[in-house]
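Reading a protein record of the kind used here takes little practice once its layout is understood. An example of such a record is reproduced below.
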Amino acid sequence: MHLDPVILVITIVLFFSMLMAYAAMRMKLPIVVAYILTGIVIGPSGFAIIEDHDLVTRIGEIGVIMLLFFVGMEVSIPRLMAGWKIAFVGTNVQIVISVVACVALSLLVDMSWQQGVLYGFIISLSSTAVVLRMLQDSGELELPMGQNALGVLLVQDMAIIPMMVILSMLGDSDKVAFSHIAIQVAGGVAILLFVYWLMRSKRFHIPKALLGSYEHRMMLGLLLCLGSASLTGWLGLSPALGAFLAGVLLASSDQSQWVHEHIGPVQVIFMAMFFLSVGMLVEIDYLLANIEMVFGLTLLVFLFNSGSNVFVMRALGEPWESSLITAGLLSQIGEFSFLLAAVGLHVALIDENMHTMTVLVIALTLMLSPLWHALIKRFSRMQGIYTKDRL
């Protein structure tokens, strides 16, 4: 009997995923770390079981979209908007601090200030996928600290578009078309109006005639998730933001429970693919050749992001315990920074070598983020700061 090589690849991936997941469980590490390590093992730097990284990345992006869709169903918009000071003011101040620091550093090391702006944008974005997964695993998403982190992540997702526009203007503008800027601005205004309408309107209801059988419900849930993501993506905004708003709309109805039950397992698979794609980005040969530089920059990112987030939250009146734990959550560089790095390469702000280094540092911060957050929590417990009832 002929063995389809695709089946063999899937089997090997599942084997390594289960093996890494078991090891992570024994060492009390988040499952995210297991998936990223699996990506390293099966990727080009490992056994090269899967070499089409672009395909895995595109499948993994669906996992991020579905994650935001499920989070939207668990979020209270009034409670989220109550933390507008942290979400809107805090996020923008933190972005400015990152840009100013990177511009100053770039001038000291004989780089251009435009490159400093690029790296300021890159390190200012945290990972929606990693942070929300850690909050869900720890059961802290509903705590004030979790809601603050969620608000920051959503504003960062909305900031990706103006960041891309600014980078395009700073780089080789001949390579960039500005025809979609008006659509992006209009899309952003439409999103804000939608959120306002959602808060003022009555409960949204899905007619029972559309639900039907188990298959109908699964298809409808996926249509709501991916359809809304496609709409915001067409407007030039983050697809994950559209999926989040669809989840919020569904949560305002009485139909959210069946969505969890029917498409929850599908989300797990796609989410795992995203973290596999992150692991596949790690180039072991380049890492070994530049190990001091890579880990030095990774540690610097963790320290700077943690420190700047603590400073901003304390300045906005948050208590020490909440500020420290939230800063540890937001200390990594996010998945959307891969896109900013690609834009920087495309408009000639950075070369191939700098892009490779940037991608590697981003991937390492994503992989090591759960460990860094665990260290922050351990330090907080030793100082008597961290207890759930104080967050």
Q: What stands out?
A: The radius of gyration is 21 Å.
